Amino acid sequence: MKRLYADLGLLIVALIWGITFPVVKVAVESISPFAFNAIRFFIACIFFLPFVSFEGFRDGFKIGIATFLGYSFQTVGLQYTTATNAGFITSLYVVLAPLIAFVLYRISLRGIEVLSTFVALAGLFLLTGYEGFNWGDILMLACAFAFAMEIAMISHYSREINPTQLAFWQILAVAVLSTPFAVVTDRFVLNRDVVIALLITAILATLVAKLMQNHFQKWTKPADASVIMSMEGVFSHIFSVFMLGESLNLIQYVGAGLIVLAVLMVSSEF
Fold first, then answer.
1. pLDDT of 213
2. Which residues face 188 on adjacent strands?
3. How many CB atoms lie under 10 A from the CB of residue 5?
4. Measured between alpha carbons, how far is 142 from 86 in angstroms, rounded to an integer?
5. Backbone angles phi, psi at 31, to 5 degrees
6. C-alpha–C-alpha distance, residues 157 and 167, integer Å
């Protein structure tokens, strides 16, 4: 029964992350990406304060640089591509993480992980490159690489450091590093769309989702958790259809399907 509740909990986490793509896309029409991220992550930091110590400051901030790059590429990229593309391309971090871990820490690669990379590239081409890549899709791919680096670094450092402490210093790093760029922004309007997006991303997508993920992953298999979390891209498309009227053609659906397949391949235990 615990495993069932854990799987449902993680599915809710994927749903929360999925809805952030169309919500943030609307928000950055009124506020610059860096100003949005600075405010979002400073708000999230406030809720983490009761759990904070200086444990893991150096390593957490180091990981936070990768986190900052990931969210910066993602939020800026959302201005130039669809929320649907953003969701599916971002999910490629699951496929790229083993490659980054191999490069950084010489962790051996499985054959299925290498094969999944080629499947993901084929999916990426059909989803975005078949009719011509755009600047936003390229930024989203850079975002996926940055998040893959973040995941590889977390797996490396969390063995010795409390994950909650690492999470706080990561979040603080994003807020601090975003601030200088936010100060020189030429777009800063705190309207209804921006406030709603900040509350959803800071409280639900950062604080609640992170705590739920840490809690529920104790009761389910890593492979099952990865499969469930891969639904983030699917949810981003569903919400984008209803909220923004986005759509995909048949070839793009095949590409999206291949990306999801690549994520499932990496998540397999074979």
1. 72
2. 31
3. 12
4. 11
5. -135, 145
6. 11
